[in-house]
Amino acid sequence: MANDVFVHIPYSELFSYLPQVKKERVNIEIYFSADNLDHYLEKDIETVISVLRDKKLKCTLHGPYQDLSPGSPDPKIREVTFKRFLQTIELADRLKPELVVFHPGFDHRRFQGVIDQWFTHSLDTWNRVLRYSEEVEVPLALENVFEFAPDHLLQLVSNIGSPKLGLCFDTGHYNVFAKRPLSRWIEMFRPFLMEVHLHDNHGKLDEHLALEEGNFPFGEFFELLRRSESSPIFTIEAHNEKAVRRSLASLGKYLK
User: Fold this and answer.
1) Pairwise CA distance, residues 230 & 207, whole Å
2) Which residues of 25-53 are buried (b: 16+ CB within 10 A; e: fewer)?
3) Distance, CA of 106 to CA of 116 (rounded, Å)
4) How far apart are CA 119 and CA 112, in angstroms?
């Protein structure tokens, strides 16, 4: 199972970590919030591009998600969401990431009873976004967040049917929200799995702990990946440097 390993760093914190990224040659996933998309400086983006190029490092991007809803019944909310996603794609054209991760915006509490409506609006939004991402040859991966089961994400990606649209499996989100067996998730995600977000929690809150500091079953998870012959990008999403280093040490055991 040969995989690239990345570390998630919000853009607002990136420049404080950039010396370590350069020194330790770390592949990075850069999270851009809506505020970052509106206020980044051109010279800073050029600096990031230079570091990636000079150190021969890879990156992925994580798009904004707060208050965005690609399947919203409100067309103005969908339009704002589309514009934020398009801003991210425009940055991706310059940073040349391996892929861009977005949240699909599904939540049973919000869309119970109108799932068909969510699905129809989501199809329209993602098809519009893909027209731009395919032009710049950047794949997109939709990440599980509040989903109880993998079915809605699988249906969405399958219906769109683009090789440039896949899935990102998030271990922490699964541990808090999912109600179906891990084996079912991996079996259904397998044909579309592009990336995995790795972090841990105790099944109650999205704590973003180091691997093996909560109760997510990492042993079972990596065995399922081996059996599925999947080789996604692995991204550490622990939320401080100490936890990232502990996660990298734990991940090394599973990737041997």
Assistant:
1) 26
2) ebbbbbbbbbebbeebeeeeeeebeebbe
3) 12
4) 12
Domains of the chain, each with CATH number or no CATH: 5-254 (3.20.20.150)
Using CA atoms, how far apart are residues 33 and 115, in angstroms rounded to an integer? 27
- Token reading at 211: 């691997």
The answer to whether residues 242 and 226 touch, using CB atoms and an 8 Å cutoff, is no
pLDDT digits (tens, 9 = 90+) for 149-161: 999 999 999 999 9
By CB atoms closer than 10 A (0-12, 13-18, 19+), residue 229 is exposed
Pairwise CA distance, residues 190 & 74, whole Å: 33
Residue type for position 53: R
Could you tell me if 168 and 194 are in contact, meaning their C-beta atoms sit under 8 angstroms apart? yes
Closest-CA residue to 157 (of 170, 141, 145, 134): 141
- Locate 247 and state its tokens: 């996660």
Q: Summarize pLDDT for 22-45 with one digit per residue, the tens.
A: 999 999 999 999 999 999 999 999
Residue 197 main-chain phi, psi, to 5 deg: -95, 125
pTM of the predicted protein model = 0.97
